[in-house]
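Sample pair:
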Amino acid sequence: MKAAGNPITWITAYDLPFAYVSEQAGIDMILVGDSGGMVQLGHKTTNPVTMEEMIILSAAARRGAPNTFIVGDMPQGSYEISDADAVRNALRFVKEAGCDAVKLEGGRRMASRVRAITDAGILAVGHLGLTPQSAASFGGYRVQGKTVESFEATMEDALSLKDSGAVAILLEAMPGEPAGQVARALSIPILGIGAGNQVDGQLVIMHDV
């Protein structure tokens, strides 16, 4: 779709009915995001979400959308400690919830995690820009990539993720032009959420729709 210039549609779903209507509408991909911890479970941030909760939500979404590409969102604490932890929990998304891929936040610092997951035969999606799990480390929920230094760091992170085996990258909360530059520079799909219209597709939160 990227090569043909066809925009990729991506939406979050956290249960059977929302996943079902997403599949019936012809959405290309579903993300079972840790954002479900906020919009479904009532947490103020995504940080409290557990692996057990993510597996339950992901399995429900898979039952509602048996024929759609589903990405399970690895929650905070499920991959940061070690490559082995990352692979173990990524395998849970595949084996217990039927996900097609997993998503994890972070750039160069998570390159070894992405490589380990990929080496285990699991598709990995990167997440750059505003990364909610670590938002406090860069001053809260703020737009990223607005300065030359921030953009260059994002580009280096994106290239590192691609080289580590990531099959796609999500850019969150970035101006359209720098996000578009990342999309044009990389051969893998670059999806945006609040990142303008120059990327290869859009992710939207179901509850915002």
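DSSP finds seven helices and eight strands in the chain.
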